[in-house]
Amino acid sequence: MGSQGEGTRAITVDPESPESEPLRRAADVLRQGGIVAFPTETVYGLGANALDEKAVRRVFEAKGRPADNPLIVHVASRGEVSRIAGPIPPVAERLMERFWPGPLTLVLPKLPVIPDAVSCGLPSVGVRMPRHPVALGLIAAAGVPLAAPSANLSGRPSPTRAEHVLEDLEGRIDLVLDAGETGVGLESTVVDLTVDPPMLLRPGGITVEALVAELGPITIDRTVHGTEFGERPRSPGMKYAHYAPKAKVIVVDGPVLHMQERIAGLLYEFQAEGRRVGVMCSGESRGVYAAPVVLEYGTRDDLTTIASDLFGTLRAFDRHGVEVVLAEGVPSEGLGLAIMNRLTKAAGGVVIKV
Ligand code: TXA
Ligand code: MG
User: How many whole angstroms from 126 Cα to the centroid of ligand 1?
Assistant: First the structure.
């Protein structure tokens, strides 16, 4: 099961109240050591029984994931946390109470039941309780916690639809539960609670502002702003290039009119060189750019729209065969911090400030 070359089954499931039959079939696959892609409220995950070392290794293999990048363990209730992590500090209880189920991953001291394949030898484990009814139903049906990274090939934008999962992993995984679009569109926020004060390792669906309102001051890992690669970040995943379409991405960041002016200038230069250029912009810039491919990623008025469409839009540029994507930045506040983190990584750190 889970080997390359076999077909990948896709089963449609109701996102609000998932039918028990598909959940049971997927749970059977998981209990037998298979790997199953499933929707969460952030992105699709590629799940394996977190207690089954061999199944977990299959996840790394299917994704082509570097062996030093640990997986998040997904649970269906708060009670399950104490079986995989501990001691659990009071601050963790507060965050679970306030933000679970939801897009927040807590890094806690790991208990020995979690195999090294999950944590990649770290003494800690990332734990999260997702909010999506299909994810919760699947974990409950499987009766085991699920180790699940995003269900994309390593380095590609995370999948927000089952089609994206198949685009990357068809034939490499056993099953995908298709419940349509995920919602939040960016991955969970990752907070390390093994240090004091807590440290933000990855910005995501829960904003820093919301965390600070609950906890007071936290520290922010320097990789969060997305430009530092290659050193030894506390969250190993942050050192890899990520989220990239096949085209080269250049982010331009600053006040809207300045961005528009600079992007128009760059467009002209690239087109003069005969390059096929695309622009990724907000609805507010509709009609501004004379490029062959202009894709809107949402509206600045509501950053949740940009978060939910960002990865899908990055993938769409590949279908248009562009060589260069010029992308408008957004202010790094609220969800904007996570959006800029992913955009900066997609651009391999190439951000032009105007
Ligand atoms: O929203 C999400 O978190 C999605 C859905 C499927 O739940 N999952 C996801 O997983 O984004 P993945 O594997 O693509 O990203 C996990 C991130 C990586 O940056 C990894 O390095 C970090 O979490 N991480 C996991 N365990 C860790 C640990 N023990 N210490 C530090 N960082 C950890
Ligand atoms: Mg990922």
Answer: 7
